[in-house]
Write a structure and sequence with these properties.
eleven-stranded antiparallel sheet; 11 strands; 189 residues
Amino acid sequence: MKKLILTTGLAALIGASSISSVSAEGSAFSGMYGGVQAGFQQQKFKSKSTINNRHHTVKQNSLPFGFNFGMSTVSANNIFLAGQVDMNFSLTSRIKTYTPGITAKVGYRFGDKFVLAATAGGVFSNIHYHGSTKNRFGYRPGIEAMFAVNEKNIFGASYEYTKTNSFHHAGWKVKPVTNAVMAKYTRKF
């Protein structure tokens, strides 16, 4: 899983930098950027007892927030590529998660103002679950729509599905899954 995460991030950055020489000049979607995101997510912790096969699901709604930095480019034929590192926080009364990730984005630019992209990446989640801390790798596919207000400012929205490796806690095998809808603001450097 570690190799997959590193390979995904490296491939996105190399791909973005390799076609930057043929990118559309003056595009809001080409260059280095930084941004913030916030939204709504539902975390599900599906548990199965290792003793008597009982099942239990803990659902936790939260308002995650975070930041991101990356590099993107648009080719002359409107193909959008980006590589990004990000960090999301989700703090609730029972469950806290800190999730850094590496994301690759591939999409298409419609006109000069709109991009629709598929996203895929790897995450490393630090999960504080009922008094214990678990560190787990996982994957995060999704979809993102971005709208350029001008050459520097981009607003967007995304859906992300995150699944991390299961862990054992107090006689239960726990499988964490997260669905998130995020609003994003990005500023090009």
